[in-house]
Design a protein that fits this description.
heterodimer, A: about 270 residues, alpha/beta, Rossmann fold, six-stranded mixed beta sheet, four-stranded antiparallel beta sheet, 10 helices, B: about 325 residues, mainly alpha, MetI-like fold, 2 domains, two-stranded antiparallel sheet, 2 strands, about 0% strand, binds adenosine-5'-diphosphate, binds magnesium ion
Chain lengths: ~270, ~325
Amino acid sequence: MTAYSMDNSLGGEADVILTSHVKGFYYGPFLALRNIEMKIFKNRITAFIGPSGCGKSTLLRCFNRMNDFVKGARLEGQILFNGRNIFDASVDAVTLRRQIGMVFQKPNPFAKTIYENIAYGPRINGYKGDMDELVEQSLRRAALWDEVKDKLKKPGTSLSGGQQQRLCIARAIAVQPEVVLMDEPCSALDPISTRRIEDLMQELRDLYTIVIVTHNMQQASRVSDMTAFFNVEMREGSRTGELVEYAPTTTIFQSPQKEATQAYVGGRFG
Amino acid sequence: MPEEKTNTFSALTLWVRWVNIGFIYLTCTVSVAVALWVLAIISVLIHDAQAAFHHFGMAFLMSSSWNPLGNNGQGQYGILPQIYGTLVSSWLALLIAVPLGFGVAIFLTERWPLVPPGLQTLLAFLVELLAAIPSVVYGIWGIYVLIPALVPLTMWLHVHFSGIGIFSQPPTRPSMLVAGLVLAIMILPTVTSLAREALAAVPPDLRQGSMALGATRWETLIHIILPTARSGLVGSIMLGLARAMGETMAVAMVIGNSNRINISILQPASTIPSLLANQFAEASGLQVSALMYAAFILLIITLLTNIFAEVLIGRH
Ligand SMILES: Nc1ncnc2c1ncn2[C@@H]1O[C@H](COP(=O)(O)OP(=O)(O)O)[C@@H](O)[C@H]1O
Ligand SMILES: [Mg+2]
């Protein structure tokens, strides 16, 4: 069952990799998200857009259980990854995070060399193959190899902001995840670095499933196949995030079904 | 934008400029004053130690006699046992205080599933409280509480491990071991609070970045948090070491002040500060000079320790 037929240009229907049946997500007593029903398609780029505070990051961090570290955070409902509920007692969050990687808003390279930044993830996950090869491959995929191949021993923090973010992408894909979650990965970058990362996402699409949160609607329309529009609604006196509309990106931007979507992508608020 | 700046030479920017310049001069003056002060202390030490330099030269560091009547009544002095005692007692203290202090610091900075935050705050407070206890009180506690309490343990160590050099001689009540233990407790707050600051200063997004790669809490701690906090942690060790090497009163009370090098830590020993504390009151003539020489050597040892620390941290 697919709720949406995918854009033909993408080659027919795609497999579902993640399914959200989030009934409610709470930070303590505060209901941050409610009734998020959506499917994330494999080898597609899905963009989350919507005004600040509508819970885009919160939902993203549910997918790899990073919210486990937030005190008082609680989820009602399920999230299925390859058909299995990630909150099942039998699912190990550490293993899950190896399969679902994450790139953060602010580049956060470790205080290690460029090489060690990449090698760290595979090493702790017991990678037995040729590390040099994996480091090179990851840096190539992140379109950073040519810029750093002569200074792999330099600290990761010595790179420019855009390079640091690509290093973080390389680091994420070095553990060979199935999904890469990106939370506003370009918000701290200049337009040229932003374009490089957008191009990079297109190249990575065949290998990974990408979910990207973005504030920038041009970015969403440029890079994504599917777009989810979230909005804040007043529920029981609190500002709760809801999924308003989820459809192929062309639909969201050219013929949205909901008025709120139309207003948002038309730039009338947000 | 630079054009804008030059065009707006208002009274305010001029004032800010003068304050800036004034501030720079002020901080320069203060730094120079501090440096001069240190130099003044060192030169007084060197000046007063002149006589002992002349009499004993480098042999002072190699000899273990401390005899005001020796050398035809002139006095015969050397501080090898004190150098040895200073190094051993302070390293012994580090050996105990660093694992304990780092453990507490990690416990205090990490979030644990079953630990109420109130417990962490309480523990942090108690450790800080150790720093407020005067040195003499540690000495009294060492004599009346720690030494009697240690007797069964030291006997047991000697009986079962007398083959190992450091336990080879029968235990005495005041000893190197007691001094090391008292020092360990005294430097624990220094090591703990500095280590805690260093760990707390590691940006939380590094921890998140590591966890997001599928690292466990311990892998993150060992491979990301500790290396990132490395220079702060080394600093905490070095400050603890400096405190231990300089501690006077408590050590003088529990170490036994023996003028012999004994490989067994169950036996009495002596340190440079405890020597100074014990001898200054009654010293005169060449003995004062010898004590100044000893103080100068303590200064050199501390200095070398700091240089060693700098090299270790990787700033040259
Ligand atoms: N760690 C947290 N603790 C409490 N409230 C939070 C936390 N993180 C986010 N929130 C709240 O949850 C709501 C959604 O936040 P977020 O997911 O960051 O939104 P977005 O990414 O769409 O801007 C906001 O009202 C925010 O204040
Ligand atoms: Mg966000």
